[in-house]
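[agent] plan:
  1. take the single chain provided in the ticket
  2. run structure prediction with default settings
  3. attach structure tokens to the ticket
  4. add a short note for the reviewer (M.T.)
[agent] executing step 1
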Amino acid sequence: MKKYIAISMVDVGNRIKQCRKKLGLTQNYISQEYKIDSGALSKIENGTRVPSAILFYELAQILKCDMEWLITGKSANKHNYIKLNEKEEHLLCTFHQLSEEEQSEIEELIEFKLFRNKKRKNNDIEEPKVSELPTSNNQISSSSQIG
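[agent] step 2 finished; step 3 output follows
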């Protein structure tokens, strides 16, 4: 007796939408860049249209998602549903080799970079470089010199 997997196209569509949004892509962008009809993509994301195998494969590649995860919500991929390129895998592996303190420093640097990029995008204001920012050591030494 064959065992069948129940596939919910609404769930598949939601996972496609989740991947697209996580990458910051719009339906219009995908439509224009990859020649995929935005109406068709909208219907797929809403679960009212089943994509062809070829279109499904193309979407998985565009969204850097594991096809198994898109279909079932489960994946053997250790990075869950996002496929990492070689550079991303290298960054992740080297990040895990750092101490917790060093990892925290990297996370703070990333948050700073994202904040600075957001400020630039919203205000077109030149933010200071990390090297120009006062460090906690500079702040301590300058405050002790004042007093």
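[agent] step 4 note for reviewer: Residues 98-146 form one domain.
[agent] ticket updated
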